[in-house]
Amino acid sequence: MKCNNQNCNYDIDNICIDGLTSEDCPNLVDFSQLELVTPDSITEVDDRGVYTDTLNAQQSGATEKTLFPGQIPLSIDEVQTRLKDRLGKIVSFIGPVGVGKTTLISSLYDVFSKENETQVLFGGSDTLYAFESSCHHARVTSRGSTVSTPRTSSTEGVGFYHLSIQDSKKIRQEFFLADRSGESYSEMVNNLSLVDSFEELLRSDLLLFMVDSSSLVDNKQRHRARRTTIKLIQSLFEYNTLPKNTNCAIVLTKFDLVVEENNETVCMSEAKRIVDDVQKYLDTPIDILSISARPNSEGHARPDFFKILWQKLESSQRPQKKCPLNKYKTNRSFHNLELMYEY
To answer: Which Gene3D superfamilies does the entry link to (predicted)?
Structure first.
């Protein structure tokens, strides 16, 4: 019980300031006896930005209702539908938990809101709200000691962020940036049968394998980080799951933290060891790119990185399968007449 009189401490010492009993005091309120009043409709919003009218949903059987298109990343079916209408490229960001996959995807969009040297113009997005929702956390925390970006849940599967750009050659290109949780990739390494279910990898024009730079210079973590990355790449190519001429690149995240400690030479050396080890599985060279922990923050800006990355995205193209052509010889008159007509 609690008294409505601010000067009374009945809830602490059980003594009424007016000397009345609990039954006689009109200011004492027993909150356990209050009836909970609920509104006619209760709206809940989940972390994807989707709201559910719980009361009406129970009455009508409805589960959820999307506010508007573009508020969440695209599904694989939605991407396939768009690729039928317009040519586009799929880029997969691959790496363990906390390496910065979602942060980098958000930065590729956020760079258009600032001066940059990418020579790329923003042309729209079908996931604009999803981009803004992801970038909001990084913008709010950009002045803190760490930058916070919502992590991708393993239960969500793969989601695609869409970017339409005009490249340096004034050509419009469509990009679908695949984001999947790090837990899913760790599970895939332990169970190679899951590789075929990662449809975005089989369709990707570019695979970006992301590595935490700080782990490569830590004596206690470098061997594990290098071994984990090698095993991840090996699991995709060793059994010919992906073509050996697939476009790949190693992305070193949080590279500014390594530079501050003057360990960039050690970091690049460890990254080259990874490339040398996995190069035997590939027929194409693997580039090594680096990005800071806060690519769009003052003092940590790396405009050259985004320029190099966008050049890599523009030039990447999914390798085409080579199908052998069988030449048949025929003496049929119709075929001979057709050949004569062509000449």
So the answer is: P-loop containing nucleotide triphosphate hydrolases (3.40.50.300)
Between residues 104 and 301, the one the model is more confident about: 104
- The span from the CA of 135 to the CA of 320, in Å, is 35
- Which among 205, 112, 239, 102 is positioned nearest to 158, based on CA atoms? 102
Q: What pLDDT digit, counting tens, does each position of 132-150 carry? A: 887 765 554 444 444 456 5
| CATH number of the structural domain 76-315 | 3.40.50.300
For every residue of 185-233, DSSP letters joined together read: HHHHHH-GGGGGG-HHHHH-SEEEEEEEHHHHS-TTTHHHHHHHHHHHH
* Class of residue 129 by CB neighbours under 10 A (exposed 0-12, middle 13-18, buried 19+): middle
Within 10 angstroms of residue 269's Cβ, the number of other Cβ atoms is 12
Q: Determine if the pTM surpasses 0.85.
A: no
Neighbouring C-beta atoms of residue 252, cutoff 10 Å: 23
Q: Can you list the positions of beta strands (E) in 254-294?
A: 287-290
- For residue 294, name the pLDDT band (cuts at 50, 70, 90): low
Q: Tell me the two tokens of residue 79.
A: 């991407």
Return contacts of 213-217, CB within 8 angstroms, 24+ apart.
213/252, 213/253, 213/254, 213/255, 213/257, 213/258, 213/267, 213/290, 214/254, 214/257, 214/258, 216/252, 216/258, 216/266, 216/267, 216/270, 216/271, 217/258, 217/261, 217/263, 217/266, 217/267, 217/270
Chain CA centroid to CA 200, Å: 13
Give the residue extent of every domain in the chain. 1-37, 42-67, 76-315
| C-alpha distances in Å from residue 136, one per residue of 88, 121, 158, 175 | 27, 21, 21, 21
Size of the chain, expressed as the number of residues it contains: 343
In whole angstroms, give the CA distance from residue 127 to residue 310: 19
- Tokens 């008159």 belong to residue: 333
